[in-house]
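Box 3.1. Reading complex inputs
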Amino acid sequence: MSIIQISGLKKQYSGNYVLKGINLTIDAGQIVGYIGPNGAGKSTTIKILTGILSDFEGEVTVLGMDVNKNPIEIKQLIGYIPEQAALYEVLSPMEYLQFVGKLYQLEEKIITTKANELLKLFDLADKTTVRMNGFSKGMKQKVLLISGLMHNPEIIFLDEPLSGLDANAVILVKEILSQLKNAGKTIFYSSHIMDVVEKISDRIIIIDKGTVIADGSFESLQQQASLGSLENIFTSLTGGSEQHQHTAQQFIDVLKS
Amino acid sequence: MDNWLLKILLSLVKLFAKRDIDFEKLQIITQTKIIMDRRRVRVSYKQQKNKEQKNPLLITLLVYAFFGLIMGFMIAFTKPFLLSMIFFHSYLLFMMAMTLITDFSTVLLDTADNQIILPRPVNSKTIFVARLVHILVYLLQFTIALALFPLIAIFIWGGISAGIAAFFTILLTVALAVFLTYLLYVMILRFSNEQKVKDIIGYFQIFMTLLFTVGFQLLPRMINFEEIMRTFTLHWYSYFLPPVWMALAIESLQEFNLDMLHLSMIACAVLVPLFTFWVMIKYLAPSFSRKLALLQNDQVSLKTREKKQVVKKTLSSLFSTLLCNSASEKAGYEMVWKMTGRDKGFKLQFYPSFGYIIVFVFIIVFKSSSNFNATLQSLPGSNLFLWLIYLPIFSVSTSKTILPYYENFQASWVYQSTPVKYPGQLISGSLKALLTKFFLPIYLLLFAFAWYIWGNNIIDDFIFGFFNNLIIFFLLEILSVHHLPFSQQQNIKEQSGRFVKVFVQLISIAALVGLHYLALKINWLVSGLVIVAAFIGYYLIQKIKSLRWKDMTI
């Protein structure tokens, strides 16, 4: 059963199309990696799917509901974890989670117990009532993860979920994501690099300049790449091409001069 | 106060709420916003450095209430009543607009809400009402702080009808202030990007800080209230000014004077704010939020600067080649020159104390403003120019005390990671930068002023004084703990050595000024001492240059 359906999705900012006709169908219970270089349109797609952006062309349904017709119902059932640690820094993690939890209509008591336990699991137990202005990016990212998952959503959207986390936290988050998948949740995350998370993804979608250029499991993408058709994309995303070698050589030459 | 204002507004919303508004979510959003308002650090009163103040907002409100109290007394003692009303409404309009621009702008221009609240299940009407309630709470508490005491004063000295009228004109003035702020934002956003907007707001903040510290000392001395009260008349152009409408509207109701002039003024007082408010809601606000949304998504176009990246000789590199003789010193010089012009923290702390030079000059040279011309004529016979020579260093030396502190102080790792043998050269470079950037211009300006009044025979005094100032400045560095520029975290503990430093500063200045004063009695002595002073100055800077890492406190 398809849980997300996108057909003919276009989005423009003052005449510039950042999405040029995206068609996707995503099944429930999968981890989907949405990958592309910076400025490819990843964040824009996620913002449309989560109902943050509402003026676009095309049709988008999430959980069988139209994003523009039932945004509130959809938002209640999905979780969104934004990039670049956007949260209210003058609040403490507990205050912030209370705030977000109440917007999801959770009860205060439940939020308190859940937040305490989850913060403890993320090693933030001693910082529950400290204001977040002094937090590192990784610590804020942890609070954001909790705030987007606390209401136990069906679909989880993550925008660059691992940026700023330390190695242990990365492993923990990856484990959390695959266990969420085992529990039947759908996970849709974006990233600009083919990082380690590729191994937990069931499906990888690569977009560039607003169009989908590759779609499939990691293995099938690798096969296609070795045949040549996807080589350019892969190298542009993973690095290590001749072009890069050349640039590196020039770099060294300038240092010597 | 904000809490019960919120309660009142929320119960009003509850009374008239339409079905679309989710009341519980409205409540939690507005409550959170108000907590955040309380915690936002106010720029104008950043002087006290304790980091996590419990409620900076309350302090601001109390200060405003205190101003209000003064304004209340002013209303009581100013005649005619109309004049005091014009004063009061101008003051209210100005303070409200300034507060909105400098303080509330961070809230209005914040795009974090889009990321934090929009993905949650809250409908847009609730978000809109929450924003409205939040802004109203903010406006109302500042209105109360600013206008409560003046309003009481109007009731007592203007009568009940004037008081009731003033109640409405206060609200109308606030509405006008909101409109003016919005207009400013839309105009800035139209012509520039988000960074520019923040810069411009930064300048407003510096201006506000200057006004709070310097303006309140200076304005009463410059404006002759008695003179104004005696000769007060309304010129034709004053009828275009909103505070005049408001004041005349109050007067008209106070005296039941309903002639053509007063009626038209009432019309202006009521209709213009309402009309501008309508324009704001209909046109400005939507265009404003559209622009803001664009700013957020249009990051690519923001970051590209104009292509012409030709390296041109800047003023700082020109001076550094002239004044510095080693690469480290040059590095220190140019870095300090550029950073002091760009770091908002430094500018906010230093410029107000810079402004004090003007205040002191006024206070000392023109002790009273009433006989301005008489003072000017008696000046050439006096030795007051000594003050002009030695005043600037008081303010400029604070720049040296502020210099080590920087928000992003970790960046100072470059000092240690690079092979700097004599960190003292970085310090001597930074001292030279501070002297040429802040001390020299004001010193030359004061010299020009002194030369105009006292003539040629003070030239040698200013040369001697120049070297003495250098000695004081360098001596301060030698006697204090050595920090590299922009390398320290701002904290409270640092204050301890302050007293000793100020004491040494005073003693050395007193000794040098005393010497200078005594030297005035013998004609040739000042010129002779110039050489001695120059030599001492040279010796001191050499000493600073040779400071090593073990002399530094990191």
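In summary: Chain A is about 40% helix and 25% strand.
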